[in-house]
């Protein structure tokens, strides 16, 4: 994601736009790892802009999505083929 680079250059509107796009796309594709990365960037954005009201609600949403991700990984590890692929890719 390019949003951190935008934040370093103090282009907060550009960073917010990139993060929102990433969040929207990852939600629509049910891509939990990318969604979590986008949420992490959004939390950094909130910290930098001092938007602590949205920070707290996004932390709660990120915790919920992280729990879903862990559950999906656990379910995948229960099947033989998925487990072997995950071991090959270094998940366990």
From the N-terminal CA to the C-terminal CA, the straight-line distance is 26 Å
Q: Which spans have pLDDT < 50 for at least 5 consecutive residues? A: none
Helix content: over 70%
Radius of gyration: 16 Å
Mean pLDDT: 90
Count of discrete alpha- or pi-helical segments spanning 4 or more residues:
5
Secondary-structure element series: HHHHH
What is the strand content?
Answer: under 5%
Strand segment count: 0
The main sheet comes to: none
The number of domains is 1
Output the structural class: mainly alpha
Shape: elongated
Give a written overview of the molecule:
It is a single chain. The chain is an all-alpha fold. It is built from five helices and no strands. It has one domain (3-88). The longest helix has 26 residues, at 52-77. It is elongated and about 45 Å long.
Keywords:
92 residues; mainly alpha; 84% helix
How do you describe this structure in short?
With 92 residues, the chain is an all-alpha fold. It has helices at 3-8, 12-29, 32-49, 52-77, 80-88. The chain has one domain (3-88).
Layout of secondary structure:
Blueprint: H1 3-8, H2 12-29, H3 32-49, H4 52-77, H5 80-88
Helix pairs in contact: 2-3, 3-4
């Amino acid at each position: 994601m390019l949003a951190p680079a935008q934040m370093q250059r103090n282009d907060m509107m550009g960073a917010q736009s990139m993060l929102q796009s990433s969040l929207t796309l990852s939600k629509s594709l049910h891509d939990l790892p990318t969604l979590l990365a986008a949420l992490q960037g959004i939390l950094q954005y909130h910290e930098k802009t001092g938007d602590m009201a949205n920070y707290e609600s996004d932390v709660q949403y990120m915790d919920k999505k992280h729990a879903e991700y862990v559950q999906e990984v656990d379910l995948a590890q229960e099947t033989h083929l998925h487990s072997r692929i995950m071991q090959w890719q270094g998940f366990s």
